[in-house]
């Protein structure tokens, strides 16, 4: 399981080579965006507060002081640690802005403006700069100043209301879907902003809110009640899909199995069950009647599954009859052994100089002529102070050392 498992072409120029990014992000939503920019070849400069940097750096689990969470989200980013509470620190950022293409931040709305680094100021310094502001509720509106984390966005967007058992409380989605999806949306928007800038020469300010992104995921819970004038109500449906049956999660001999048999697959399901008589059963003749008798059909399917020894035998039987299905698996167990995941590079092994080797999700985008993925390492706080300021501003080592001595820059470990 290595980073070379994905299909890439050696010698091909990375898609974002030559794009420089000032990254004022922390936690997950912003770093999810800039992580993708790095892997596409951008030079991402992560601006971190001294002395601790991104608050996720100590997040467990850790090995040799290195957090798996931090390593996964921040590999390949250069770290510049600047004291932004001091005018000299702000001035240093202002000096850098004319030399970058993109600025990404996920502070609460107004923080960058209070530092004198809002979009209007950045545009004065660099008319072509593209700024992406990622926040919980967006930059405008009555809730814009409200603090938001992933679960709060799940709640306000209604997705939490739609998750869980019908007679139980709302449930959390089992991953940071609001953070990561918002990061991906920001990444996509930046691509279009770069494309527009290439055509017009103009920069832009992107306002990406987590709640907006999550609400956009509601495929029927908004339009359905609206169109039906309230006859259809969005509500939790537990382990079954509300509009169709059989469609949901079923108890297998070992674990859980998803079966999703729509009208054009239902005959295949009866064949897989070896119960052709179900086709004539008035309880199951169409989707409406199957929904009315969902519990009875669920029992039939789960009783059939219980006769097998292994979940994979159930899945194989259903697949032979072209019934859409799949096992519910732990994120690592199948991915690190299944040939599909290995061939696609869906999971990959990366090396960290302190933490050693670990598995992380693979890069999710595939291109016909993508370059080999680079070997990326998560930086220590302020590790690249000298190289960043030399590359972008032409400062020499002595000048950078003086800024560190004055406390405008921070570096861990400090210079000897």
From TrEMBL:
SUPFAM superfamilies in UniProt: CoA-transferase family III (CaiB/BaiF)
GO molecular function, one term: CoA-transferase activity
Annotated PANTHER family: SUCCINATE--HYDROXYMETHYLGLUTARATE COA-TRANSFERASE
InterPro entries noted in UniProt: CoA-transferase_III_domain, CoA-Trfase_fam_III, CoA-Trfase_III_dom3_sf, CoA-Trfase_III_dom_1_sf
Name of a matching Pfam family: CoA_transf_3
Organism from which the protein derives: marine metagenome
Entry keyword annotation includes Electron transport: no
Swiss-Prot/TrEMBL keywords: Transferase
Protein name: CoA transferase
Gene3D superfamilies associated with the record: Crotonobetainyl-coa:carnitine coa-transferase, domain 1, formyl-coa transferase, domain 3
Location of region: Disordered: 49-80
